[in-house]
């Protein structure tokens, strides 16, 4: 039996980025700030920033596991408030640094040994 999407199971946020090598230091500094804060939020079970070095583009991924969809939704609101307090505009920052991002939310593909869609 497959659980409903809001059954309290973990939700994963996987974001991937293509960052020009010349801007990796600035992006890494910003990611350290963001993910340092994310790790303090209620419901954050796993929080990593991953990198595959290359030139002229570096591939970066962020992976966060949330306790459930409610925790991820609350974190989204908290992050918007966090950015607003800092006067930080993520879209503008990425555009200025020519960073291309792809953002997605996922859930486990298997549940009790069965494929979940």
Strand content: 25-35%
Q: Give the N-to-C terminal Cα separation.
A: 12 Å
Element order: H for helix, E for strand: EHEEHHEEE
Biggest sheet, spatial arrangement of strands: 2-3-1-4
Instruction: Give the structural class.
Output: alpha+beta
Mean pLDDT: 91
Quote the CATH topology.
Alpha-Beta Plaits
CATH class: Alpha Beta
Main sheet, how many strands, which sense, barrel?
A: 4 strands, antiparallel
Q: Could you say which overall geometry the principal axes of the C-alpha atoms support?
A: globular
Fraction of helical residues: 25-40%
Total count of helical runs of at least 4 residues? 3
Domain count: 1
Give the C-alpha Rg.
Answer: 16 Å
> In total, how many beta strands?
6
Protein name: Antibiotic biosynthesis monooxygenase
Organism: Rhizobium halophytocola
InterPro entries: Dimeric_a/b-barrel (IPR011008)
Characterize the structure shown.
The model has no long low-confidence stretch (mean pLDDT 91). With 117 residues, the chain is an alpha+beta fold. The strands form two sheets. Strands 2-3-1-4 form a four-stranded antiparallel sheet. The chain has a two-stranded antiparallel ribbon with strand order 5-6. The protein is globular and about 45 Å long. The chain has a single domain (16-106), classed as Alpha-Beta Plaits (2-Layer Sandwich), CATH 3.30.70. Helices cover 34% and strands 34% of the residues. The protein has helices spanning 24-38, 69-86, 90-96, and strands at 11-20, 44-52, 57-66, 100-106, 110-111, 114-115.
Give a brief description.
34% of the residues lie in helices and 34% in strands.
